[in-house]
Amino acid sequence: MLDVAIARARILEKISPCGLETVSLANGCGRVLASPLSARLSNPPVSVSSMDGYALKAEDAREGAVLRIIGEAPAGHPSSQTVERGTCLRLFTGSQIPAGADMVMIQENVRREGESATLLSAGRQGQFIRHAGQDFHTGDTLLPAGRLLGPRDIGLAAAGGHIWLPVSRRPRIGVLATGDEIVLPGDPASADSIVNSGAFMIIALLQSLGAEAILLPLAQDNADSLSAAIAQTHTLDMLVTIGGASVGTYDRVRSTLEAHGLTLDFWKIAMRPGKPLMFGQLGHTPVLGLPGNPVAALVCSLIFVAPALRKLLGQTVPEEMETEPALLGADVGENDQRLDFMRCRLTPQSNGHPPLVTPFSSQDSAQLNIFAQSQALLLRAPFAPAEKAGTPCRILRLP
Amino acid sequence: MLDVAIARARILEKISPCGLETVSLANGCGRVLASPLSARLSNPPVSVSSMDGYALKAEDAREGAVLRIIGEAPAGHPSSQTVERGTCLRLFTGSQIPAGADMVMIQENVRREGESATLLSAGRQGQFIRHAGQDFHTGDTLLPAGRLLGPRDIGLAAAGGHIWLPVSRRPRIGVLATGDEIVLPGDPASADSIVNSGAFMIIALLQSLGAEAILLPLAQDNADSLSAAIAQTHTLDMLVTIGGASVGTYDRVRSTLEAHGLTLDFWKIAMRPGKPLMFGQLGHTPVLGLPGNPVAALVCSLIFVAPALRKLLGQTVPEEMETEPALLGADVGENDQRLDFMRCRLTPQSNGHPPLVTPFSSQDSAQLNIFAQSQALLLRAPFAPAEKAGTPCRILRLP
Fold first, then answer.
1. Are B245 and B277 spatial neighbours (Cβ–Cβ below 8 Å)?
2. Are B10 and B35 in a shared domain?
């Protein structure tokens, strides 16, 4: 049985970014930037006022000074006039600072009578001016390659003059659920049929992380049925299979894939849930074989498939799993040779301490109800000793 | 100037969930469940084996016992045979437990020779059996109304026999950016034009939270241009305007909306960035007027628009803003009468303590570059005193 961290590294080593596409700024949120974005213009493009008020010379900015108002410049309507000593120009938030002026007095500090403005306070050079390029200058790098674009990044790209964004295309990932006992929700079923839940969970996860996920037709536990699905593999950036990867007589996934030319890397790892995890390469396509139990399948997806997808998308993937600190909310027993990912409740603590994490009493890998109620997975290292409530520990938050 | 918490409560008070639609299970992830979901079947539907092995009677489960193998039942192919004393049935993970058997011996603990199975260890009643309904029973409530459905919920709904899901429809929210100085990215511009970034940020945010966001045509600072956009308002579940809501002569948004029948609730709140925030009702449509500076617009969207959207979606919205504890990473000065949301960097601490939060030196509300680099907003209460690095504080994480 392979160590989880080694398995994760071996998978990531074999995965490369899958390619680019161009999308509109309006469709860029949630996509991964494929190359660094530089500013095509400065922001603000010219010096502008940050308040409603009057542009003037700092030499005139004494309390009680009376200035002549030479005109008005709404935002978007710059004035061609020059502010000389003894004069000022009415302007508004976003208005261009006129020639000659080097500060803005806010309107609350000005008494206006006709064309005359009396300053009610002193001021200093530069006040309430946003200087040209104060946010960024033409040519500045705004966003790095590999960035998962959020709303603020979209705003920055817009302000930087970008209408089209180079992003990673959505990796196309096939999800193949296998098993004679599996049926699609609502399809005709016998008394012992199990409704397929694993594939729907994994597809939802992959889509939420930016993949184009394809539900392949269910495959039965025989080579013909599996072969039909496997024949599509060359059109995929990754194939994820569910079930049939264990040691049972009817676990045909591995043997059928190998008959189609799979180069097997490993197929058993030291984790719970999820011992039967298979990884290999079929032509150019990485293949991850997940266990059939739906909880195990999704936990393995979080640990292995999600980082593989991030690498396909060109994101930086940390070498280590991204765990968070927590404190045990209950005593836990000693662990065996497998890294354990226990389904848990989290209780936030108001004193600023890490949350308390309490494992559910049942950790069966077919229990979707408890899995849906869980907020995190508690990591228990191989051969970890029994530990008392209050001991620091590490968790993975569930999406 | 209205207190932020009061403003937030007054907005939420006026918002009601916006309606339902039915979507396929395959499209349910990221949607909000509109009514509780009960199980239409039990999971597992019958008692099944959790391992590959042999079904037998617990009375026979002594080390060294030799049992006759009466047949085999792959998953999905239940056997009609009954396991009697002295016999066992070969089965696999997911196979139905045959009549007469009350436990499973895993294959690693059985030596098989032809039709004879020698047990290599003792066993106990019930072992390696997943009992019918162990996950849930028909009629059990699986998911509550208002739940934002994630991958695990989709799996649970599938396992519970649901093919179609009742969800809140996506609220249709119009976003109207205003200002003579504003242009769309790439559109013809003059030297002092500002590329519209606020609307793109807010649309990205709204979409990521489950809304159908509509970029209305840009409106200039005159009543005609605004009226054209406002005429569409009755088709929207909410209207969000950006800019033009301040006290300047050219800030026509409020007056134009009022001329069209807006019932104004408030239009100034005690926060920074974001003093000019307007809220009212135009016919059946709530209207939120955001400040024109893009950083202020997005911060106000997080504080006011996002919870309003969650309420439109039928989600439970906590009364208070959901802040997290942190520790000041630098000294901060005293605050004035406005609740301040300072753009900050977060530094996680490995000792399990809350993260350190360090405000950027510039807090100008037009600086998108610093905003994009920020990880959180530090909350500084009105009239908060100067505080030293290391003092506990509260933050809002940025999406």
1. yes
2. no
From residue A374, alpha-carbon distances to A77, A198, A367, B375 in Å are 57, 17, 11, 26
Residues of A in contact with B366 (CB under 8 A): 43-44, 50, 130, 134-135
Q: Is residue A317 part of a domain?
A: no
Task: Give the separation between CA A96 and CA A50, rounded to whole angstroms.
Answer: 10
Of A136, A118, A127, A104, nearest in space to A39 by CA: A136
Nearest to A159 among B30, B152, B195 (CB): B195
* Average pLDDT taken over every residue of chain A: 94
CA distance B23 to A386: 46
Local confidence band at B123 (pLDDT 50, 70, 90 cut-offs): very high
Alpha-carbon distances, residue A143 vs A146, A318, A371, B347 (angstroms): 9, 19, 37, 20
**pLDDT above 80: residue B249:** no
Write out the H or E segment, with its range, that includes residue A194: strand A194-195
Same domain, B39 and B160: yes
Same domain, A120 and A251: no
Decide if pLDDT at A263 tops 90.
yes
Residues B185 and B296 in one domain: yes
A259 and A179 assigned to the same domain = yes
Which structural domain range is residue B77 located in?
Answer: 48-130
State whether A367 and B197 contact (CB < 8 Å). Answer: no
Q: Is A212 on the interface with B (CB under 8 A)?
A: no
Looking up residue B99, the CATH number of its domain turns out to be 2.170.190.11
Last residue of a domain, one of A312, A342, A363: A312
A152 to chain B, closest Cα gap in Å: 5
Q: Find the closest chain B residue to A368 by CA distance.
A: B156
- Asked if A122 and A147 sit in the same domain, the reply is no
B84 touching A, CB under 8 A?
Answer: no
Tell me, what's the ipTM? Answer: 0.92
Instruction: Please count the structural domains in chain B.
Output: 4
Query: Is residue B101 predicted with pLDDT exceeding 90?
Result: yes
Do B266 and B308 share a domain, yes or no? yes
Please state the rounded mean pLDDT for residues A276-300.
94
A13 Cα to chain B: minimum distance (Å): 27
Q: Let me know whether B207 and B217 are in one domain.
A: yes
